[in-house]
Write a structure and sequence with these properties.
The chain is mostly helical. It has helices at about 40-55, 70-75, 105-120, 125-130, 135-145, 170-180, 185-200, 220-230, 255-275; strands spanning about 125, 150-155, 160-165, 205, 235-240, 245-250. The chain contains nine helices and six strands, in the order αααβααββααβαββα.
Length: about 280
């Protein structure tokens, strides 16, 4: 010990009564608590301490000046009806108003499934349907023949056929989704470059394929362009460089290099002006 062992009689035990305890040491006096009326809280604490010491502790009724807990007050309020009438066009659809599948044909049920997947920006591969039900070919034929299922269309890829609803997805986007799904990057790039040259017309910046929905990395693009230059079926896809050093792709079956160069340079000039 710092000052040595205490001698007998050095310390004296004193029994304090609640009324002898100074209120200044109470947590209720802490200004950080911001109580509305600390005086009545001190009295409550003293009464509670006396009750415990005397062995007859009873719940202490709070003072009329005591602050009211907001949650207790809200629970004590009577239930009240909603003063606003329900909307005629609710944001949350009523599940009971959905289609009655017990009254639908199998082709209609399949069409609803394809529509739901299309709304979620997903194609429905035919091979996946066949894997779940080998006899589904008849259901597909029925679906395509029904008048109320004419929104269901097919986009054909190199590996499979894919169903979608044109109510929720454009044909061009369905084609892009099919190319991305099949993960043949050289074929996807060649298809989109030819499409852009014919449709707009415009060459395609290589950076275009790093964006959604392609999201290809630079190593993937470098490898794909190398494959395009090696395979015979992609020999019309050529690379050019703009005045500021950006690579573009174009199809020489659709436009000449000189025309593609002018379009690409102009696109980069316009982009630089916007910056």
């Amino acid at each position: 010990m710092l000052f040595g062992r205490r001698k007998p009689g050095f310390a004296k035990e004193v029994e304090l009564k609640p009324e002898d305890i100074s209120d200044e040491f109470s947590d209720r006096n802490d200004p950080a608590r911001q109580d509305q009326n600390p005086k009545f809280e001190k009295k409550e604490m003293a009464a509670a301490a006396n009750a415990v010491i005397e062995g007859n502790a009873q719940p202490v009724e709070p003072s009329k000046d005591a602050p009211v807990d907001i949650f207790d007050y809200m629970d004590s309020l009577p239930d009240a009806g909603d003063p606003f009438e329900p909307s005629e066009d609710p944001m949350i659809p009523d599940p009971n108003e959905g289609p009655d599948y017990t009254q639908l044909k199998e082709g209609e049920i399949l069409a609803n499934y394809i529509r739901q997947r299309t709304q979620a920006v997903s194609l429905t591969p035919k091979k996946e349907l066949m894997a779940e039900d080998p006899t589904i070919e008849n259901t597909i034929e029925e679906m395509l023949s029904l008048e109320n299922c004419q929104d269901i269309k097919i986009v054909k890829g190199q590996k499979d056929e894919y169903f979608y609803s044109f109510q929720y997805m454009a044909k061009n986007y369905a084609t892009i989704a099919m190319l991305v799904y099949e993960k043949d990057i050289p074929h996807t790039i060649a298809h989109m470059v030819r499409f852009n040259c014919k449709t707009y017309p415009a060459p395609s910046p290589v950076e275009y394929f790093t964006r959604h929905p392609f999201s290809y990395t630079k190593p993937q693009l470098d490898h794909a362009i190398h494959v395009l230059q090696q395979k015979e079926e992609y020999q019309d896809i050529k690379v050019l460089t703009t005045w500021n050093g950006r690579p573009y792709l174009y199809s020489e079956n659709v436009m000449t290099k000189k025309y593609a160069q002018v379009l690409a340079d102009d696109a980069e000039t316009s982009e630089a002006d916007r910056r």
